[in-house]
Amino acid sequence: MSVRGLTFGLLSLAVFALAACETSPGKPTLADVPINPESVSDFDALFSHNCAGCHGPNGRGGAALALNDPVYLAIADDATLRRISSNGIPGTSMAPFAQSAGGMLTAKQIELIVSGIRSRWAKPDALRGANPPAYAASEPGDAARGAAAYATFCSSCHGPSGKGGPKASSIVDGTFLALLTDQELRTMVIVGRPDLGAPDWRGNVPGKPMSSQEISDVVAWLASQRVPFPGQPYPAAVQPTGEKQ
Description:
By secondary structure, the protein is mainly alpha-helical. Among the domains are: 37-121, Cytochrome c-like domain (Cytochrome Bc1 Complex, Chain D, domain 2, Orthogonal Bundle), CATH 1.10.760; 143-223, Cytochrome c-like domain (Cytochrome Bc1 Complex, Chain D, domain 2), CATH 1.10.760. It has eleven helices and no strands. Helix 7 (143-153) crosses helix 11. The longest helix is centred in the N-terminal third of the chain and has 20 residues, at 3-22.
């Protein structure tokens, strides 16, 4: 065999070997290359991995309120969404997600989530003709007045003392109240829980929407039902397993 022929044969063998490597079992593909979390810029991916666990797929609600609720988005502006997404709500299950607050998301990713929520689920005319209460209370509520407002607007579903009724569960449970701030209670009273069949501030009594002050008063009454140590403590006589006398 000539030198030229030998060279051609060796080159052909090398090309064949390289082609075989491309299809070898176990060879990583582009899909196997890890993605830098900071480079994710798709709203669906960001929401699914960071928000849907509590707020439900597509923001439909779950352990936390629905983010695809146009009523909520009508009273909560972008600054509110950005602040909560970034810093969380201390003392509750809403953790901070921004890197500046100890989370994993960049400022750009927080903006993508906020703008995505607004562009997909907000409806500019959702409250046309209505006069919604302010997102935050302008002055403290009064618990005594709140008891009367609760009786008017809430007791038909949650029962006369708030411990549950024919249409809804207890809203004075110590654990439930411990998990929510006064602002979260106010938000819930205003926007309701449409995913659970709870109406917004306009639907508790037909033709009689709650005023901003009545909402503040109901929140004050609910806050007064909080207990210092929520949950069911063990009786004093019960000894933890494994503890010696």
